[in-house]
């Protein structure tokens, strides 16, 4: 891993659009039959032009998730007063870029306004407030979201229900009622249960399986289970463990997605930790690739610069596939390889490609039949295919990037 000097970095940021060359993570994921490879983002970082340039790169990201701006405290800070400004910024960005949006989230124990957590509730009044929130928010974003995380993190580590305001006031019925309310507001959006530490077998995964069964037992629709994937370098569950756990969910008739993937390490990062991180990312993504009904992978932001990890886990970080200077880490190649893409040497002579280990890439199998859906088909310096596969049109985005849509 070659570190960029600050002078080179300044030049590199100026040349950042050249980083979008080549077939990236999303292109490779789609070529593997997945719906997307995506990333979380958040409103404050959208003032960083270099950051947004890469966020906009649909060759890597065919999907985005708002990290915070659709949460309850942002959207309904006062009862029955809805504020969609921040969430709309990200929904509109996704729409303008042709990226899918995973909408996140409707019912959670955290990031709730005090009128919810400190209110005096009966079963009936809290159910009414919950349904009002869900109906308003799902209706507002109707047509924008591929999926909603309807209920987030309802379980304790031992698989029992978390003692949230929802559970203690309404009981487990809050789950099917939340899903039924969301389905009524938008019958077409995919409805997910989303949690962490349910990616490998154990009490908590059993709890998540039981949630799917509970919702189905009410005759209510649940479409998917979101496996967050907040992992630790060197103790990430194995590919086979993740694949067999995914199979347990899909056997219930739901799809799965990896929804918040990041793999943190104890700082400082070393070459050995970065190599292990590459292995861990690769195995996790490969588990999704191997699972027919795993629809896609979302990383919980793409750069260490804006990762939630250092502020949440003291002494830990470097969890994302790009470092804080927007240079691809070995993890990027690990993901791309797991997606069936091939890392090849860059043919450009820009400061970026000649001084960093960043390489442009081509996903296998796209050239014979034209560039696949979502693939790059033009832009300044682009030397790859310019003709799209049958049914897709090479669409100009800017001088640096055209895409088969
Ligand atoms: C990112 O994409 C949006 C929507 O397509 C566009 O308006 C914006 O100018 C792009 N920003 C950068 C920095 O490329
Ligand atoms: C609250 O009301 C719902 C809807 O009638 C019901 O399913 C649930 O069991 C009730 N919860 C409690 C704790 O009584």
UniProtKB/TrEMBL annotation:
GO CC annotation, single: extracellular region
Any one biological process term the GO annotation gives: xylan catabolic process
Keywords: Carbohydrate metabolism, Glycosidase, Hydrolase, Polysaccharide degradation, Secreted, Signal, Xylan degradation
SUPFAM superfamilies the record matches: (Trans)glycosidases, Cellulose-binding domain
Domain CBM1: residue ranges: 369-405
GO molecular function: cellulose binding; endo-1,4-beta-xylanase activity
Residues annotated as signal peptide: 1-22
Enzyme Commission number(s) from the entry: 3.2.1.8
Transmembrane segments: none
PROSITE patterns linked to this entry: CBM1_1, CBM1_2, GH10_1, GH10_2
Span of domain GH10: 21-338
Region (Disordered): 343-370
Family to which this protein belongs: Belongs to the glycosyl hydrolase 10 (cellulase F) family.
Protein name listed in UniProt: Beta-xylanase
Organism for this UniProt entry: Penicillium cosmopolitanum
């Amino acid at each position: 891993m070659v570190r960029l000097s600050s002078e080179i970095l300044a030049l590199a940021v100026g040349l950042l659009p050249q980083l979008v060359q080549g077939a990236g993570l999303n292109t490779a994921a789609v070529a593997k039959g997945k719906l997307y490879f995506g990333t979380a983002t958040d409103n404050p970082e959208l003032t960083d032009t270099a950051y947004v340039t890469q966020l906009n790169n649909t060759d890597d990201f065919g999907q985005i998730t708002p990290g915070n701006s659709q949460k309850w405290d942002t959207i309904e800070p006062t009862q029955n007063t809805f504020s969609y400004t921040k969430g709309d910024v990200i929904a509109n960005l996704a729409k303008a870029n042709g990226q899918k949006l995973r909408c996140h989230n409707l019912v959670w124990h955290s990031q709730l306004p005090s009128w919810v957590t400190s209110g005096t509730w009966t079963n009936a009044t809290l159910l009414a407030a919950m349904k009002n929130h869900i109906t308003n928010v799902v209706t507002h974003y109707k047509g924008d979201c591929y999926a909603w995380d309807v209920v987030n993190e309802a379980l304790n580590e031992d698989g029992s229900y978390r003692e949230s305001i929802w559970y203690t006031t309404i009981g487990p019925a809050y789950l099917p009622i939340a899903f039924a309310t969301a389905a009524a507001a938008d019958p077409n959006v995919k409805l997910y249960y989303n949690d962490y530490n349910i990616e490998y077998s154990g009490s908590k995964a059993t709890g998540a399986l039981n949630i799917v069964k509970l919702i189905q037992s009410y005759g209510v629709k649940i479409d998917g289970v979101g496996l967050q994937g907040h992992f630790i370098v060197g103790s990430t569950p194995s590919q086979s463990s993740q694949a067999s756990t995914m199979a347990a969910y899909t056997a219930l008739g739901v799809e799965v997605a990896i929804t918040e993937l990041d793999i943190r390490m104890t700082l400082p990062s070393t070459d050995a930790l970065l190599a292990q991180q590459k292995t861990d990312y690769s195995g996790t993504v490969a588990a999704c690739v191997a699972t027919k009904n795993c629809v896609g992978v979302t990383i919980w932001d793409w750069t260490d610069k804006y990762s939630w990890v250092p502020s949440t886990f003291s002494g830990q970080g470097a969890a994302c596939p790009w470092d804080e200077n927007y240079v691809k880490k070995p993890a990027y190649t690990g993901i791309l390889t797991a997606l069936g893409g091939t890392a090849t040497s860059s043919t450009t002579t820009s400061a970026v490609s000649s001084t960093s280990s960043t390489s442009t890439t081509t996903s296998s199998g796209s050239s014979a039949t034209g560039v696949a859906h979502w693939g790059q088909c033009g832009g300044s310096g682009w030397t790859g295919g310019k003709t799209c596969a049958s049914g897709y049109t090479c669409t100009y985005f800017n001088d640096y990037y055209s895409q088969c849509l």
